[in-house]
Amino acid sequence: MPKQTQNIQHGAPMTKRQKARWELERSKQRRVTVAVVSVLALVGLLIVVGLLFDKVFVPNKTVAQVADQEISNAEYQLYRQITEAQRAANSFAQANQFNQIQPGAGEQFTTQIQADIISLRSKNAPVDYTLLDQMIENKVIMASGAAEGMTVSDDELQLSLAKKFAPAAQASQPVAPISPTTALTGTSDLTSTLAISPTAVPTSTVAESQSQVDASIQTYFGTLKEFIERSSPYGLATLPFNVSQFKSFVLEQERIQLLREKLGEKLVAESAATKEVYADADQIFVSVTTAPTETAELSATLWVAGEAKINEIAKELAEGKDFLAVQAAKSEYKEDPNQEVGIRPLTEFAQLGITEPISTQEVGVIGAPYRSAAGWHIIRVTERELRPSQDDLSQKRGEAITKWIEEKRAVTPVQRFPEPTPTAVPPTLEPLPGEEAPTEAPAEAEPTPTP
Fold first, then answer.
1. Closest C-alpha to 63, from 414, 428, 331
2. SS3 annotation, 329-381
3. From-to residues of CATH 3.10.50.40 in the chain
4. DSSP assignment of 104-131, as one string?
5. Distance from C-alpha of 400 to C-alpha of 197, rounded to nearest angstrom
6. C-alpha span between 219 and 434 (Å, rounded)
7. Rounded to whole angstroms, how far apart are CA atoms 285 and 273?
8. Helices 154-164 & 243-267, crossing angle to 10 degrees?
9. Spacing of C-alpha 185 from chain mean position
């Protein structure tokens, strides 16, 4: 069977007009394709630039420079967020205290608490120059202190924090204060201490201190995180920092605090402070409660009954009974077991009304019954000495530290980016040379009405 050949018909060649139209269509398609690709490339470029700006440029942007040290925007934002989270927690605690005294009194803190919590969501909040100045001041203290040979070792840091922090189970706010507080140190220039027997104070090792500090910070961080998330409007906020960043913040603040204390000791010696009496004492207390409406006869009867009771206790002590045992059994005043006791300023005994026997009784001797406005006391002074007044010493050292920082900052190159806008001050109009200052025209006298 013969093969059939396909009947292929070739199209007629395009005319010049058809070819021109075809070339025009192809050119349009190419332009559309190029435009689409260009738009997609531009969008991709904008996304990349935006990510670089948000993740690289903004965090690494310098907001301040202190000599040769830079403070980046990322450092500032982290400092701000931790400060705001702590401030919200502190305000909440204050609100609870106010509400316990008077229901509803803590509402004044609500606005500030919510503002701080909402602000945590911002990763690039405007610069608060008050916070930035705190960071600048810290840099000045660290650099200038190191230049003068003042440093804080890691061991000093851990031991100091361990003394300040409660155990992790009881930690409520393990955060080093930013404002300076000066502790009493050294007593070489004081009179010898009169004491019955010294109390041994256990000293933690560095490893134990570090473990305690880590546990306290971990506990507080968890509490802070839960508070922020539960208190956030609609649950939108969470802590924008982790426990490692929070720990670094706490350690840095404590290091600054210890540098301040060392600086205060260097600038102002203890001998510069006024002396005051410090003492420690045990007491047995029998209260006498009288109401303003009671008659004088009834009040006198109550005081006599209280005196009889305290005299009976004094008799037991005179017969040789142990003071602390009698105190535990019959005293109506008990020391708070959670409160640190020991030698303290005489003024702290004023609220008990027993400063006179504390300052005059012989150390180690059980005194005679003493009457105060609250009742009857039997006092045994266990320790008394003259020490520099902690309040006076703290004030003088604080003033000296402030002056030192101002002097160091004055000679340290500091720049903020941008610099805060100065507050506009209205110009004072002064007369030109040779001209007199303008004076107000005298007020015209009101015409006297004609009758």
1. 414
2. HHCCCCCCCCCCCCCEEHHHHHHHCCHHHHHHCCCCCECCCEECCCEEEEEEE
3. 276-387
4. TGGGGGHHHHHHHHHHTT-SSPPP-HHH
5. 37
6. 74
7. 34
8. 100
9. 23
Give the 3-state secondary structure of residue 384: strand
Of the options 1.20.272.10, 3.10.50.40, 3.90.226.10, 3.30.565.10, the CATH number for the domain spanning 276-387? 3.10.50.40
Tokens for 416?
């903020």
pTM over 0.85: no
Per-residue pLDDT of the chain (451 residues; tens, 9 = 90+): 555 555 555 556 777 777 777 777 878 888 888 777 777 777 776 665 555 545 544 456 899 999 999 999 999 999 999 999 999 999 998 888 888 888 888 888 888 888 888 888 888 999 999 999 999 999 999 999 999 999 999 999 999 998 887 544 343 444 443 333 333 333 333 333 333 333 334 456 888 888 889 999 999 999 999 998 888 776 667 889 999 999 999 999 999 999 999 999 999 999 999 999 999 999 999 999 888 788 888 889 999 999 999 999 999 999 999 999 999 999 988 766 556 678 999 988 988 899 999 999 999 999 999 999 999 999 999 999 999 999 999 999 999 999 999 999 999 999 998 888 766 555 555 555 555 555 555 555 444 444 4
Q: Confirm if 223 and 305 have CB atoms less than 8 A apart.
A: no
**Sign of the alpha-carbon torsion through 290, 294, 296, 300:** negative
DSSP tag of 291: -
What are the structure tokens assigned to 312, written together?
């009976």
For residue 64, give the H/E element and its range.
strand 62-66
Asked if residues 267 and 399 have their Cβ atoms less than 8 Å apart, the reply is no
